[in-house]
## 1
Amino acid sequence: MTIGVGLLGLGTVGAGVASILTNPEGRHPMVAELALRRVAVRDQQRSRPVTLPPGSLVTDPLLVVDDPAVEIVVEVMGGLEPARTLILRAIAAGKPVVTANKAVIARHGEEIVAAAAEHGVYVLIEAAVGGGIPIIEPLKQSLGGNRIQRVSGIINGTTNYILSRMADEGAAYADVLAEAQGLGYAEADPAADVEGGDAADKIAILAGLAYGGTVSRAGIATEGIDRLDARDVAYAAQLGFVVKLLAVAEHVGDNADGSASLDVRVHPTLLPTSHPLAGVHGVNNAILVEGEPVGRVMFYGPGAGAGPTASAVVADILNIAGIRKVSGPQAGLDPLLAASRWRRCTLVDGSRTSHRNYVRLRTRDEAGVIGKIGTCFGDAGVSIQSIVQFPGHEGGAEIVTITHEVLEARFRDALAAIKALEEVEAVAACLRTL
Ligand code: NAP
Ligand code: HSE
């Protein structure tokens, strides 16, 4: 039995998918049953790294979605529109969809999931988070018996590649970003990577699956690595930490109406070198899932790039093809695979959460400054774990403090008092610490 596949996009990911579908030897026999029927691109004249079936390349995506020979639509074009409209059109036509597009799922997932349920089709998104790492299926199915306490991880390959090269070789930020773009890791607009938006899309998706409800994408506190100073990476290393862009979704408690209260955020974070995520380098991603009763499970692997992402896309296509094989196209939806929502999720006010912090201050270099800073922290009820002075600009000092875990609101009070000290020129950096 052959199943017709239509591809929307033949860029980094699309070409990777086409390359698997057109070279099935040595893979699972069902790959040979997937026939690439139509492929949409913007520029039909551009040379492509893969040989397609004759006549399959088009520039009108509707020719893919509406082609009766296309039974599964694979959306790997990216962006919000026309991707959203094309996904909804495929669903309305009763065609299952596979997508790697986290931006569209994080923002329009609720609408897409509802449409898919109404029309009885699957929308599978394994490639949307973690590139080649299987994390979506485990959260939906293998870990379904758990109460999930926390999902945290490094889920943007581009920024992890940049941070690793900066830390290991002192490489310049702009040079490494250009390299990551050349390797096909970065988004079409790399601001999504470096400003943290891509990781926020992904943690919204993971939290939605872990906690069974839609998470407001707009409500996720997001900070990227674009304003990170190389000095903080270097100071962190001297203090026994590595800096990583971390995405976290944590179950804080349940509200009176039964909805789950979550703390979901993305920010550069100092990790002790002994932390399991500290050793994740280059384009690799890793996701730690903490649940009851399973404990701590870590998923690790390449988080971006053509091959790893195509591996995840094809896994989803095979999942759908396998179900069709045994149950036919009109079979009902498996609620686990379809990721049906089962509760509401709300986000907590960040000022009511607690964290450890790293603060770098630019100060005058004179007697009593560290004492005054310590007093500001103490008066606000912030306990200090360590305070170190580094040589600063001429006549000045850089004072780095690491706090114990403290309520964010208290920490902000302490910072306000520190900023008001005449000896303090600037709060130069403020980072979360694990
Ligand atoms: P890409 O290299 O920019 O490829 C996009 C493809 O879509 C291109 O072939 C482009 O045509 C085509 N396209 C875009 N808009 C179109 C339109 N309106 N009509 C027809 N064709 C259109 O992007 P990518 O890196 O493969 O990423 C694709 C998706 O996968 C994105 O959602 C991304 O977030 C996601 N993703 C990417 C990675 C990764 O490592 N790159 C990993 C996981 C998920 P032309 O070739 O003619 O320009
Ligand atoms: N731009 C993304 C990243 C692609 O670097 O992680 C994988 O989703």
Note: The CA atoms of residues 146 and 293 lie 6 Å apart.
## 2
Amino acid sequence: MTDALHTTAINILKTNDRGSYTVPTEGLYPFQWNWDSCLTALGQRHFDPDRALTEIETLFQHQWPCGMVPHIVFHEQDDGYFPGPEVWGCRRPIPTSGITQPPVAGFALRRLLDSAPDLRDRARPLLEKITAWHRWFHATRDPQGTGLVAIIHPWESGRDNAVDWDLPFERVPTDGVTPYTRRDTQHADPAHRPTQDQYDRYIWLVERFRSLGWQTDRLHDASPFQVVDPGFNGILIRACLDLADLAEDLGEIAIAGENRMLAQRGLAALTALWSDAHGQYLCLDRHSQTLIDSPSSGGLLPVFAPIPAEHAARIAATIDAHGTRYRVASHAPQAPGFDSVRYWRGPVWLVVNYMIADGMRHAGQTEAAQRITSASLDLIRDSGFAEYYDPLTGTGLGGKQFTWTAAMVLEFLTDPG
Ligand code: GLC
């Protein structure tokens, strides 16, 4: 069975490979996505490390001069996706979106090079590029110098329709949005996708940023949506630390120092987002300066960074208390807003499981890590390589033959919690 999973996972990665980048799945997502690609490289490293490095290099070829790495690169024309390049209007040589995604690149690069040290010289230019991205985050998304960065669009979190955004989204209007036709609901069940009202607000934000000419240093202050997502910051902190280690090994001392400093500031500031009542971290609405009472997987993900040991232990207990057959639910099943089939409002996502399990292992919570790994592989055996899964029944939902799900399976099989 394990062998069959392994072979199927590799086949999916190869089927979705477009030469120098990999699409998340055919149809629903026909371009290159930022954090999908970096996590995909982790799967590719098991059978073609060279190709894995290309995946990350391709993404960084489309980095903006300001340092931002866009969340989508529209390598080829495809009308099957909305919003396409004309809606973003970013005026890049190869069209891209104008927002970003969770910065897992530093972590992925380090893990890839740990298993393929002969690629280090080729990878060296990426150290500066990834650092420029980290620097950009702190310069443009933390103008007050708090140590934590904000997202200005829910798509940046990677958790598009999380319950976390419901309250801050009330500040985003829907009037004046150019009429459009959604394409996602033609590929997937509308009951498993974000609502129409949420889509109107997603597009309103895109049009607002486009009207400002995508000057990324102006968008944070101009956005009615500014949220400090603990999971996003946990990923950034971990990526800074991994990149710092890698840079030290390669003798790039200045790069190492800068990343370590950013990580330390982030870690110190993260504590303010801890909720004892929930046994996890919470998002901060930067406009109202209040914590958002929404226990999502975004508040569990900081365990990916070296948070205090007692917080890691509480997070392990919180996941146990979810009580779902399959873990990790993207929203606490006991909390308002939970929906076991609707995208990021309850379903399990393997990439999140992977990062939480990895963090648990580093924190010494090996049994908690093992439980997540087993639950993840059970899902694949029961329901195949779906985009996401119902945590109660294990039903596979959304897109099929999903790239990053396959990549995570290769990781789980090789490096079981
Ligand atoms: C969805 C997910 C996002 C992912 C993208 C491509 O938008 O919410 O996290 O990057 O699909 O798979």
Note: Residues 2-414 form a domain with the Glycosyltransferase fold (CATH 1.50.10.10).
